[in-house]
Amino acid sequence: MQLEDIVAVNELFAPLYPYVALQIAREYGRSDGTVLELGPFAGGISIELVYLLPDLTLTLGDDFPGLLPYFQEKVSKSGQGGKISVLGINMLRLPFGDASFDLVVFRGALFFWEDSAQIVREMYRVLRAGGLAMAGGGFGAETPDSVIEPLLERSKDLNRRLGKRVLSEEELVKLLEQMGLSPNASIDRRHGLWAAIRKPL
Fold it and tell me: Which of 10, 139, 163, 197 is disulfide-compatible with 185, CB 3.0–4.6 A?
């Protein structure tokens, strides 16, 4: 991955973030709580979630070299710096204790890394009882086709350059089964592929 390609994807997908945030907010089903957004494609969803649910407190971050200043600039420009913290975060070894967050989001978790299982395992570890982990990606279940269509060709090119791999629904189901998470998970395939994993009370 190159920093300029990551930034380009984040900027290209800006029109989608309100719709993806709406999808996540509806699945979450709460108006408050603590949120963690992970990965190099973070930021846009967190900002839109705060607009939708202003009682949330959010942390976002990744450890890709040079990416944090970009995140910080986006948060600052949004005017949500009081609600969103930006940290250097290793996705494979999250620097948080067990049961630290009510909602954990990672757009891209399943598509760009071979160690997706470890990423999801860490997301689940830091999730509180009753909380929700959202791992996946795509254009967003709520996004109109008219918003998606102008982005398709550029998105394909950037995803290829970033090394996106194809993950079928069957592979995702198998991954969740192997981790013992299937009983608490649902899959949304509308305009992408997302796994919603709830931690039992």
Answer: 197
